[in-house]
Please model this.
Amino acid sequence: MNTKVNLAGVELKNPVMTASGTFGSGEEYSEMIDLNRLGAVVTKGVANVPWPGNPTPRIAETYGGMLNAIGLQNPGMEVFAKRDIPFLKQYDTKIIVNVCGRTTEDYIDVVERLGQEPVDMLEINISCPNVKEGGIAFGQQCQSVEEITREVKKHAKQPIIMKLSPNVTDIGEMARAAEAGGADAISLINTITGMKIDVNRRTFALANKTGGLSGPAIKPIAIRMVYQAAQAVKIPIIGMGGIRNAEDAIEFILAGATAVSVGTVNFWNPYAAEEVVSGIEAYMKKYQVEDIKDLIGAVR
Ligand SMILES: Cc1cc2nc3c(=O)[nH]c(=O)nc-3n(C[C@H](O)[C@H](O)[C@H](O)COP(=O)(O)O)c2cc1C
Model:
């Protein structure tokens, strides 16, 4: 049985990775699951300098999911390189670093700095709905998606994954723009902009007013978008949005994803990522699937 997948020249032992921002760099989770079992760990977004994030409250539970407006709080590149990369290097899993920035120069700064580090791929977050500049501002127009992809690609030593926003009208167009700019892969979906009002306090549940919706509630939208992106481009796709178990992951793979990221579920089931790996193996055995590649995009 072969569970290996190839993401732009990087071979993963299986298609299961973690979704940025829901797993730290795996330190806490490593006490509960074996990181060696995962295809890759995707880190929380890192910027060139520390970011404090948004004021609190910045998370709220919703039916079938959660809203967050963390605002990409992170310790900055220097601390990250000293602390998180050596931690992850202890494991036999690929390291994918999620990169955030406010300007094109910010992204380039981080990407160039990461060029000197032993990381396998870079995931460029141009789709965070919770930061005013940068983030989603880059991710909602085709032309800017293509331009930022081209600029980042020029400076990147590792293959780049462009992380797309679902807060757009035509996801196929965005996927094509990333591909035209030279992206090695795309990942989707980031969170969907939402709002919750606290009726007792008669105010917004989040200090930021709006936040990004994630979790099982968004899965059908994510599946539809992965399918549409897979019809639009040839580069590999990493699918995510509401995955809870292996069945959900396989749905993404059948829709066209080469790999999948396990996100919000980590907060209520820290064993989920490893369970998805075992569950995919069990599914392949049950249906006598010799090679996982036979499942990728099998539903057209
Ligand atoms: C608390 C939280 C923090 C997140 N931080 C990041 C981040 O730093 N960079 C990023 O690209 N996506 C970030 N995301 C988005 C997730 O990686 C993922 O795209 C999204 O949550 C959908 O997957 P899920 O429904 O399985 O969580 C974050 C999501 C959550 C819930």
